[in-house]
Amino acid sequence: MRLMILRHAPSLADGLMAGRRDVPADCRDHAALARQAARLHPAQVIASPALRCRQTAAALGLTPDRLDPALWEQDLGVWEGMDPARLPDLGPLSPDALAHHRPDGGESFDDMAARVIPVLHALDRDTVIVAHAGTVRAALSMVVGPAALSFAVAPLSLTVLQRAGTDWAVQTVNLCAGD
Predict the structure, then answer these.
(1) CB-side exposure of 103: number of CA atoms within 13 Å?
(2) Rounded Cα–Cα distance for residues 84 and 15 (Å)
(3) DSSP 149-160
(4) What average pLDDT does the segment 83-94 reach?
């Protein structure tokens, strides 16, 4: 089973942390969208219900078979709508501690992964998911654990995992339209 996760197009969040805020996507780069669409070969399409994911799927010419609320981005609590430059420095935290860290009023990466991973385990055929950077990292954590938080996940990038039985393998991470 092949899982292709495409992060949504750049969000129109004015440079602020989007998280669970339902902000639109900038789908004006038609060439990039066409290049990524040509890489996708879904048996089924699932998307986060976030506006930016639904807009990206439509711009790719995909019609989701379902919208799954478990695929929403991590709830960043008090960090929602914040300028990333004002976030606390979490660099000294180990990957495990970072995965457990919960912003006030939000959820930790581990919390988010606990709702995303069961969706991925339940897949029974090749699937394209249009979702968020957090969703991509949750999928990667099935293979590399909390070190998944160190992966860059650019807007409109593609990450591909392969499952054989119960074992997952990473094929591609952060494949951008220009790659």
Answers:
(1) 17
(2) 8
(3) GG----TT-EEE
(4) 87
pTM value is 0.95
Strand order in the sheet with 158-164: 66-67, 44-47, 127-131, 2-7, 158-164, 167-175
d(CA 131, CA 124): 19
Residue 68 φ/ψ region, left for φ over 0, alpha for ψ in the -120 to 50 degree band, beta for the rest: beta
Per-residue pLDDT tens digits for 52-87: 999 999 999 999 999 999 999 999 999 988 888 888
SS3 98: helix
How far does CA 90 lie from the centroid of its chain? 21
Total length of the chain: 179
26-59 per-position pLDDT tens digit:
999 999 999 999 999 888 999 999 999 999 999 9
In 22-157, beta strands by DSSP E: 44-47, 66-67, 127-131
Confidence check: pLDDT of 14 > 80: no
| CA gap 144, 1 in Å, rounded | 19
Under the phi-then-psi rule, with left for phi > 0, alpha for psi from -120 to 50, and beta for the rest, what region is 14?
Answer: left
